[in-house]
Amino acid sequence: MPRTSRIVVSGYPHHIIQRGHNRQAVFLADGDYRHYLKNLREWKDAYGCRIYAYCLMTNHVHLIIDPGEDERNLAYLMKRVSGRHTRYVNRLEGRTGSLWEGRFKSSLISADEYLLACCRYVELNPVRAGIVADPADYRWSSYGVKIGNRQEEWLDDDPCYLGLADSEKERAEIYAAWVKGTIAAEEWELIRTSLQRGQLTGSPRFVEEMEKKLERRLEPRGPGRPRKVGK
């Protein structure tokens, strides 16, 4: 089957997933996770991208990235980071060949409707996988930063998160309560399906807006927006 072109738009957040080849592990030790994050930080600065959320799992990564002023920066960033990590792992294991499963998958996000929901989806990965019961207990995601447990100055605060409250402490408390609250099954399914199919994560109105902007036909997504934080 021919590859479909990714829908990438400058100035908008995108949900990214990249898996290890044949679901093989890409992180085996703490140093592997640190190496990946070091390169993510370096190249996001080099290309002017913003990172709103991340979760590094044993055999895949989830990222929320805004490519900034040039949509091509998303692919440039992922190529640099994944390439460096491949060389790092191959050198440690004395091997050659591909570490990652071909192309990364991405979904353009309607920020007002789904950015916070996608961040929650990303940061709850270890809970869904049964690794931890509380996302705060997982070291390799952005959740600990969002709730004030640790600092990572390179991680960007998305405008939706900043809009939760005026103070850092109150924002952290509201976000933590929201992440652990009830989540509609429809929200999970929309985010998951949009990512796997490379479709937009947003309402039909958002799809229409992007069709006009991009001057191309896009497949519509789900029925509407998730419930607001605190509602």
Chain-wise SSE layout:
Elements: E1 14-19, H1 30-47, E2 50-56, E3 60-66, H2 72-93, E4 105-108, H3 111-123, H4 125-128, H5 143-146, H6 159-162, H7 168-179, H8 185-197, H9 204-214
Antiparallel strand pairs: 1-3, 1-4, 2-3
Helix pairs in contact: 1-2
Offer a few descriptive terms.
231 residues; 44% helix; alpha+beta; Alpha-Beta Plaits; globular
Describe the structure in your own words.
The model has no long low-confidence stretch (mean pLDDT 92). This protein has helices spanning 30-47, 72-93, 111-123, 125-128, 143-146, 159-162, 168-179, 185-197, 204-214, and strands at 14-19, 50-56, 60-66, 105-108. By secondary structure, the protein is α+β, with helices and mostly antiparallel strands. It is globular and about 50 Å long. It has one domain (14-214): 2-Layer Sandwich (Alpha-Beta Plaits), CATH 3.30.70.1290.
How many β strands by DSSP?
A: 4
What is the CATH architecture descriptor? 2-Layer Sandwich
Task: Tell me the β content.
Answer: 5-15%
- Principal-axis shape equals globular
Largest sheet: 4 strands, antiparallel
The total domain count is 1
Helix content: 40-55%
What's the order of the H and E elements?
EHEEHEHHHHHHH
Return Rg in Å: 17 Å
Q: What's the CATH class, please?
A: Alpha Beta
CATH topology: Alpha-Beta Plaits
Name of the CATH superfamily? Transposase IS200-like
Question: How would you summarize this macromolecular structure in one to three sentences?
Answer:
The chain is α+β, with helices and mostly antiparallel strands and 231 residues long.
